[in-house]
Amino acid sequence: QVQLVQSGAEVKKPGASVKVSCKTSGYSFTSYPIHWVRQAPGQRLEWMGWINAGNGNTKYSQKFQGRVTISRDTSARTAYMELSSLRSEDTAVYYCARELEVTYFDYWGQGTLVTVSS
Amino acid sequence: SYVLTQPPSVSVAPGQTARITCGGNNIGRKNVHWYQQKPGQAHVLVVHDDSDRPSGIPERFSGSNSGNTATLTISRVDAGDEADYYCQVWDSSSDSWVFGGGTKLTVL
Fold it and tell me: Of all helices (H) and strands (E), which one includes residue B5?
């Protein structure tokens, strides 16, 4: 069965970077894009960007452009999201999700809590 | 950017029908997808492309979309349906995915 399993919770200081992983199984990794979405406390889900797991092409939300890097390791069947220059407002649960053929997200990871605090 | 508006909460008695709305400017022209999230669990797609159900989702879940409102309808609600529900569309003007604020469904 399709599974997306994310790395564990992180605590970071302002100005630091965080890298969250999303390990997949149960399907052909390179055939489906992976998206990253976050949800800050009391806020709505916010799309951050995506990666074509086949060719590595990426696209980022304007809001995060310059601060986010999405990458993948095909041999490890894993996607990564790195967010730099962290500030307190980046405290959120970060999710990865698989996109089905330029349509919608059919499977999600369980989420990774990133806390930014001095 | 495109804004999706959902009621923060909806309450319904067991066996009744819950209707969760998602408002947006001419949302009827977009494909709307709905996700369910129970506490401590991953999001689950319950309706895609306005009204299609993925395999494994009960027929009690249905969707519609017209004008400025999309609606997720859950018939014969039971305690297992308690969750947060989110709508989602692709906004071509900003080239990004947009989500509603989420609706907490409470089964009384």
Answer: none
Half-sphere exposure at residue B65, Cβ-oriented, CA atoms within 13 angstroms: 23
Question: Would you call A44 and B94 a contact, using CB atoms and an 8 Å cutoff?
Answer: no
Cβ contact, residue pair A59, B95, below 8 Å: yes
pLDDT in tens, A69-95: 999 999 999 999 999 999 999 999 999
Residues of chain A with Cβ-Cβ distance to B44 below 8 Å are 108
Beta-bridge partners for B22: B70
In this predicted structure, what is the pLDDT of residue A65?
A: 92
Average pLDDT over residues A54-79: 96
Q: What DSSP line would sit under A22-47, residue for residue?
A: EEEESS-GGGS-EEEEEE-TTS--EE
